[in-house]
Every structure is written in C-alpha cells, then in structure tokens.
Design brief:
Blueprint lengths: L6 H9 L7 H25 L5 H14 L12
Length: 78
C-alpha cells in the first residue's frame, strides 16, 4: 500500500488517484451487468411486475441488515 506523506493533504491526494480498469475487469463488469439484467427480467416475468424497485429496495435493506449497517460496495464506486 502506498504511504501517504504530507499529512492529511497528502492522504487526500493519494485517495484521488486515477484508477483504470483492465480489459478483463471491464469484461467482467459487462458480464455481471448482463446477468443482473437477465435475472431481473426473469423475476419481472415470474412476478408480473414491470418495476422491480420495491424488490431492489428490500434487497438493499437486507444487505445493510446483514452487514451491521456497513455493507461492502455492491458495485464498484468511482
């Protein structure tokens, strides 16, 4: 792990590093996104709901509850 120098200011600069995904990582995200879309389409078909917002909200609440309010990011955050 890189060392932050220069106190808080140095640490803030270190946190603003540009992160570039590899081709493999980008492909993984595309595949994962496609799988999520397919699962949502199947759930919508089975439940007869066009909007799965309520389900997403409930699943988000479940993840928060199971992680003591500090869940890991479900998707990369940048």
């Amino acid at each position: 792990m890189p060392r932050a120098t220069g106190g808080v200011r140095g640490l803030a600069a270190w946190r603003r590093r540009l992160v570039v995904l590899t081709d493999s990582a980008e492909q993984h995200l595309r595949v994962a996104g496609r799988i999520v879309a397919e699962l949502e389409a199947e759930l919508a078909r089975r439940t007869g709901q066009d909007d799965l917002g309520v389900l997403r909200g409930e699943l988000t609440a479940l993840v928060h509850a199971m992680s003591d309010g500090s869940p890991p990011p479900l998707r990369p955050v940048w």
